[in-house]
Specification:
The protein is α/β, with parallel strands linked by helices and 872 residues long. It folds into 6 domains: 3-130, PriA, 3(prime) DNA-binding domain (GIY-YIG endonuclease, 3-Layer(aba) Sandwich); 150-298, Orthogonal Bundle (Arc Repressor Mutant, subunit A); 318-521, P-loop containing nucleotide triphosphate hydrolases (Rossmann fold), CATH 3.40.50.300; 523-570 and 636-775, P-loop containing nucleotide triphosphate hydrolases (Rossmann fold, 3-Layer(aba) Sandwich); 572-635, no CATH class; 782-866, Ribosomal protein S10 (Alpha-Beta Plaits, 2-Layer Sandwich), CATH 3.30.70.600. The two termini are 53 Å apart.
Length: 872
């Protein structure tokens, strides 16, 4: 009897307990819960045996149907087992004929589940396209799309011959067809032809006895009749068109024309978009032998129909050449001896060209590459660069794809049709069996971490950067992380020798003459810091400082482009009563509501919106507390910035790029394309515009409020501010036009703002690491954050206190030396309520938080966030 170990797709309570198993449904056979209480098994897997017909068929990675209590559930086979501690049941059948996971993906899923204290079934889902796993036997959530495809089989006169078999024959059509044939057969008039053909001759040739059909043709001005002689009164082409209409063949001609223009044929839906036709007409043409009509699998390719300009590799600069030489040496180093790379290059230094060279070398060696970008917004621009260099070998994975597109891309990658996958963090789990390179661009971005605050998100709050390091180690792949503002965690790893540091401190402007000429460098744009306190003292209460307003007008007058950055959506920050100080808050999240005026432009009333749960309410006219009518709007959002730009520069063409304007599929790409093609000359946006965009005509960047988020009670607030300011400043001056940056701040003396203004990463790193070492914050010590969600406030507090006590006992049991483990809290989270739930949190400081929590029962209601990117 062949035994297998299976991860069943069932929501098992998250627990790392080693003694008593958690309560599960009632089972009619204990073999279904094997391994639950086993000391050595913390991943909650189950043992089954194979029925005889599946022995030698089922392998690790296969998706199977298995009995689980009274249910039938899907599960992934992890490995063949030598024994089971309890009696087992047989699996029922295969759910898919081929394995859905590779052996290395199984090992990586187990590592993720262990490192992030998560159910293994949830870790496995990261590797599978949405809809592949189903919960009920017999249902199919996602499948290959099949569609009819039409192809033209014949051409030229043979088409006309076959079409004749579909024609409706009338006496008039017979006459007209005969006249057309005679005219085409005798292009030079034979005796009597110039004057026409005698009617008697036509009657005998066609077999027509009545003159009525001839009269109908004459009435339609197709023929003329004089002295009993008949001739065409239109050209043969016009006559042929009229004949097709009379025969009912005109409805087939557009179909044939569209297929003739498409060498490889057309899908039915494509044909329907080009021609007004139906399936019955296609079947007629098929029966006539004119077209071939077959049902085929149609791949839903998200890049279908797109073309990208071909590019060639330029001559590397001296800095790029020095960096590339070190990367190339790594390709020749045994995989076990490789260290990952951190490519620290200023904005515009040419990091992408190093990625492209690395990919080219990877492909030359027969391997594949994954390129991660932090945002969907960057995917189109990145794809254009990579597809232009490696045509036909690039595909994308991201959350804006439909379920069908995600499934088809997954199938195509698994079949080896693509060698390069581009996308946000989920692209890391593409099924590449020849992986040789992982690139993580803008590695400092927090979006590489699955957000534990995201409602309804996966139960695995993983960090793609840390997972990529493990994945590269398992596969022997090269890992390159790049950024102009590296995260302190990764830069700290370079100081400890875990990463190899590569640096490119100069911005590349281009090459003199052509791509092989002398390299031209550009200085980073000068940054002016404006003290908004001085602006207020001078009587300027505008959103714009006098300096920024002047620079903006000068930029527009020079026919150049400007980016205005504000890390806030909406029109105003909050609404407050000036008499009693009441601030309108979300009743479910207890955070200030933001005013949105865009709806008013569509004829709808203004509204207040919660940016955490999307709760909405009308704008109050009377204070609900003191009944005062003195309601005041404070702060500014992207909508208000747009209004302010139009006030000082009515001729400005403005685009907004924030979460409100990018809700529809493809909106990121559409906004970027409009701005790049100069349909607009001012782009107002939030964090999206700070991430890796290359826009040569942008010569001005204005930061409206540099202090947003700077003083939040989070140890990473200074790091995030420095990164945002440095990155958004890097959008300016990427051409010979040069650029300038204006940063507005109420605390211009803060070290993060000063370092960003000087483009001085080293100074910021030294100052920030001194703070982290003093308080043992990451990267000096790792953190885990346990967040408890509960509708009842008192229950949330009690459960958090109970958990904190358990963790302190755990720390006392494990303490090899004082201060190695620290349990902080419990305390209400900074944002205490979210969607009606109260949130309390506990922080654990430990060298290995997952190992610390192993052995602790963590029931439902808790979210475990290992290596959190925020503690708000």
């Amino acid at each position: 009897m062949k035994l297998i170990e299976v991860a069943v797709n069932v929501p098992i309570r998250r627990t790392f307990g080693r003694s008593a198993p958690p309560p599960l449904p009632e089972y009619d056979d204990p073999g279904e819960i094997a391994g639950e209480s086993a000391e050595e098994n913390n991943l909650q897997t189950f043992h089954y045996h194979l029925p005889p017909e599946l022995e030698g068929v089922v392998a690790p990675g296969h998706l199977v149907w298995a009995p689980f209590g009274p249910q039938k559930l899907q599960g992934v086979v992890l490995r063949m087992a030598d024994y089971s501690p309890v009696p087992t049941k047989a699996i029922l059948r295969l759910a898919r004929p081929e394995p859905v996971l590779t052996p290395v993906q199984i090992r990586l899923a187990e590592w993720i589940a262990t490192q992030y204290v998560a159910p293994l079934a949830e870790a496995i889902k990261l590797f599978l396209p949405p809809g592949l796993l189903v919960r009920a036997d017999g249902t199919v959530a996602v499948h290959a799309k099949r569609e009819l495809r039409a192809t033209l089989l014949i051409h030229g006169r043979e088409v006309q011959t076959r079409l004749a078999g579909l024609a409706r024959t009338t006496q008039a059509s017979k006459i007209l067809a005969w006249l057309i044939a005679e005219t085409e057969a005798h292009p030079e008039p034979y005796p009597g032809m110039a004057a026409g053909v005698i009617w008697k001759e036509i009657k005998q040739a066609v077999g027509v006895s009545q003159r009525a059909p001839l009269a109908a043709l004459a009435a339609a001005a197709l023929v003329s009749v004089e002295d009993d002689r008949v001739r065409l009164s239109v050209s043969t082409a016009q006559a042929q068109a009229a004949l097709h209409t009379m025969q009912g063949l005109d409805r087939y001609l557009p179909i044939i024309g569209a297929l003739a223009a498409a060498d490889a044929g057309l899908w039915k839906s494509e044909l329907y978009e080009q021609v007004a036709c139906d399936l019955a007409q296609l079947r007629d043409l098929q029966h006539a032998g004119i077209i071939d009509l077959q049902e085929q699998v149609r791949s839903r390719d998200p890049l279908a129909g797109r073309s990208y300009a071909r590019t060639t590799a330029p001559l590397l600069t001296s800095e790029q050449q020095a960096v590339w030489q070190q990367v190339w040496v790594a390709f020749t180093t045994p995989p076990g001896e490789r260290r990952p790379f951190l490519l620290h290059g200023v904005t515009g230094s040419g990091k992408t060209e190093i990625y492209l060279h690395a990919i080219a070398e990877t492909l030359r060696r027969g391997h594949q590459a994954i390129v991660l970008v932090p945002e969907i917004a960057l995917t189109p621009q990145t794809v254009a660069r990579f597809a232009g260099r490696f045509p036909g070998r690039v595909t994308v994975i991201h959350s804006e794809l439909t379920t069908g597109e995600r499934y088809d891309v997954w199938r195509a990658i698994r079949a080896g049709q693509y060698d390069i996958v581009v996308g946000p963090r989920s692209a890391l789990f593409a099924p590449m069996d020849r992986l040789g390179l992982i690139v993580i661009d803008e590695e400092h971005e927090s979006t590489y971490k699955q957000d534990a605050e995201q409602w309804g998100s996966f139960k695995v709050f993983y960090d793609a950067r840390r997972v990529a390091r493990q994945y590269a180690q398992m596969t022997g792949s090269l890992l390159i992380m790049g950024s102009a503002t590296p995260s302190l965690d990764v830069y700290y790893a370079t100081q400890n020798g875990e990463f190899h540091l590569l640096e490119m401190p100069r911005r590349v402007l281009g090459h003199r003459g052509d791509s092989q000429g002398e390299t031209l460098y550009a200085e980073l744009p000068p940054v002016e810091i404006v003290d908004m306190r001085q602006e207020l003292r001078a009587g300027n209460r505008s959103i714009f400082s006098r300096s920024l307003a002047g620079e903006l007008l000068a930029t527009l007058d020079a026919d150049e482009q400007a980016i205005l950055f504000l890390n806030r959506r909406g029109t105003h920050t909050f609404v407050m009563c000036r008499d009693c100080g009441h601030v309108e808050e979300c009743p479910r999240c207890e955070t200030p509501l933001t005013l949105h005026e865009a709806a008013q432009q569509l004829g709808k009333p203004q509204k207040l919106v919660c940016h955490r749960c999307n709760y909405q309410q009308p704008v109050p006219t009377i204070c609900p507390v003191c009944k005062s009518k003195r309601i005041k709007f404070f702060g500014a959002g992207t909508e208000r910035i747009e209004e302010a730009v139009q006030e000082i520069a009515p001729h400005a063409r403005v685009l907004r790029w924030d979460a409100d304007t990018t809700m529809r599929k493809g909106s990121h790409e559409a906004i970027l394309q409009r701005f790049a093609s100069q349909e607009a000359n001012v782009l107002i946006g939030t964090q999206m515009i700070a991430k890796g965009l290359d826009l040569p005509l942008v010569t001005l960047v204005g930061v409206i409020a540099a202090d947003v988020g700077l003083f939040l009670p989070d140890f990473r607030s200074g790091e995030r501010t420095f990164q945002l300011l440095t990155q958004v400043a890097g959008r300016a001056g990427r051409s010979e036009r040069g650029g300038r940056v204006v940063i507005q701040s109420y605390r211009p003396e803060h070290h993060a703002i000063q370092a960003a203004a000087q483009h001085d990463y080293a100074a910021f790193y030294a100052r920030e690491m001194a703070f982290r070492r003093e308080h043992l914050y990451p990267p000096v010590r790792r953190l885990a954050r346990l967040i408890f969600w509960e509708k009842n406030e008192q229950k949330a507090k009690r459960e958090s206190e109970r958990m904190a006590a358990i963790l302190r006992v755990r720390a006392a049991q494990m303490e090899p030396e004082p201060g190695l483990f620290d349990v902080m809290g419990p305390a209400p989270a900074f944002f205490e309520r979210f969607r009606g739930s109260y949130r309390w949190q506990i922080l654990i400081s430990a060298p290995d938080p997952a190992a610390f929590m192993r052995g602790v029962d963590i029931p439902f209601g808790w979210r475990v966030d290992v290596d959190p990117v925020a503690i708000l």
